[in-house]
Specification:
Layout (H helix, E strand, L loop, with lengths): L8 H8 L12 H11 L3 E5 L5 E6 H11 L8 H4 L1 E2 L10 H11 L3 E6 L2 E7 H24 L1
Antiparallel strand pairs: 1-2, 2-3, 4-5
Helix pairs in contact: 5-6
């Protein structure tokens, strides 16, 4: 019987081939919103001075800020509202483990870090899409197996 190999985050980001989008922590929130819209992404990464991951800015961070301080979008720095020390995963983490982590901790963007360097990022949407593809392959295999 065919055994499907466990997909890892590394294989997913290699397939995805997306560019990582960073923003400086001193940038204004309005600039971050513009960058997210231009890049059609739901989050931005923030690097520390030594190149490590300092934080992540998500749509949810911006929405919380807008709920009470929307008039300050042009004057507030990203550093003030970003999620500091975000949860990350290593490249060898399985897609299932990542999906469970994101569901339990209630976030939608997961930076993939190897040797203190961000090598990619996945969204919950990427993981769901990958899982659907896996299921489609498995169903086809089982149908072929049954009809043989």
């Amino acid at each position: 019987f065919m055994e499907l190999e466990t997909m890892t985050l590394e294989s997913l980001i290699n397939t995805k081939k997306a560019t990582l989008i960073y923003i400086d922590k001193s940038a204004k929130v309005q600039d971050a919103i513009n960058r997210m819209c231009d890049g059609k992404v739901g989050s931005l990464l923030i690097q520390s001075g030594d190149g490590q991951l300092a934080g992540i800015l998500t749509e949810r961070d911006i929405l919380r800020f807008c709920a009470t301080r929307s008039s300050e979008l042009a004057s507030t720095e990203v550093a003030e509202i970003m999620t500091r020390n975000p949860v990350t995963a290593p490249p060898h983490c399985s897609n299932e483990e990542a999906m469970t982590l994101m569901t339990e901790r209630r976030f939608r963007h997961l930076p993939i870090v190897d040797n203190d360097k961000v090598i990619g990022m996945v969204s919950i949407g990427d993981l769901v899409k990958s899982r659907l593809q896996d299921c489609t392959v498995e169903i086809k295999y089982l149908r072929d197996f049954i009809s043989a």
